[in-house]
C-alpha cells in the first residue's frame, strides 16, 4: 500500500502565509469579529481579464494551488479534490438578489454559473488543462477532511501518484449577517475576542484557501506523511478521549507517542469544552497548539491547521504565537489534529515526519 506525502503547499489566509517564513509576520486581531484576508497580487498569477470575473474564493484558490504545485515542482496532477463548506457564496448571493430585484425575469446566468461549489476545482483544472478526476466535497466542517481522505485512498489504491487537494471558503455580507443573527459569530462591541479562555458564545469569522500537493513518493521538499484521517459526526464531550485513543491504537500508537496536538479552539465558550476536556486531561503533558486566532473560523479552517502542522514538522519548531501550553519537545515527529464545529463533524488527522 502506497504512503501519502505532503510535497507542496500554498496558503492564502488572514495572515501573511505566502512569500514569507512560517508565521514570521503574524498579526493577532483580538478586537475584530471578522478577520480580513491578506491578499496576494492576483495579476502575478491570473490574467487581469480573468480576475474581474472571478469570485474571491476562486482567485485565492488559484494562487494557493499555483504555489503548492510550484513547491512540489509539478506542472500537472492526476486529480484535483476540493473541500468547501459554503462554496462561492458571494456569487450565490448576487444571483439570489437578482432574482428578487428582477421579479425572476431577464436574469443573466453568470453569477449562477460561478456560484456552484465546484467552480474552484473547475477553474483550477481549466488553468492546468487537467482533464483528470475532479471532485468537490461539501460536507460542512469536514469538507476538507473528506477531500484529504479521498485523496489518501486514491494514492493507497495506486489510482493516482500526485493529487492537488484544498479547502476554501469565503466571507460574504448577507450570509455573515445571518450568522450574526443566529449567534454563530460574536456580537459587536463585546471585544476583545480572545480564542483561549473565552467567556462568550460565537466565533471570530474568517476565510481562506489552503492547498496541498499529495504524492506517493518522498521528495527533498516533503513536509510530512499523512498517516490517517477519521471523521465522526456526533460525540459527547466525554467520548472524545476514548475515540482519540482508539484512533491512535488503530495506528499502533498511544497518547505518549504524540509529540504535539493541534486543537481547533475557536473562542465559542459553548463548544470549546470538547478541546478543553482533553487539554486538561489526556494531553496535559503534550505540547498543545491552536490556530484559529490567526485564521478565523470557517468550514475549511482545518486546512489551515494542517498547514500549521506540516510546517511544525518541517521546521521542528512551534512559534510562540500558536502555543497553548509551555510544554516543549526536542523532536516533533508525530502530530495529531483534532477539530469540530458546534459539537458535530469531529475529525482526527495524524501526520508524521518521514
Automatic annotation (TrEMBL):
According to the lineage, what is the superkingdom? Answer: Bacteria
- Note the InterPro entries from the entry: Beta-ketoacyl_synthase, Ketoacyl_synth_N, Thiolase-like
Instruction: Give the UniProt keywords, A-Z.
Output: Transferase
**Span of the signal peptide:** none
Q: Which GO terms describe its molecular function?
A: 3-oxoacyl-[acyl-carrier-protein] synthase activity
- The answer to whether keyword Transferase applies is yes
| Domain called Beta-ketoacyl synthase-like N-terminal: residue spans | 46-218
Q: Which GO terms describe its biological process?
A: fatty acid biosynthetic process
Stated name of the protein: Beta-ketoacyl synthase chain length factor
What organism does the UniProt record list as the source?
Flavobacterium muglaense
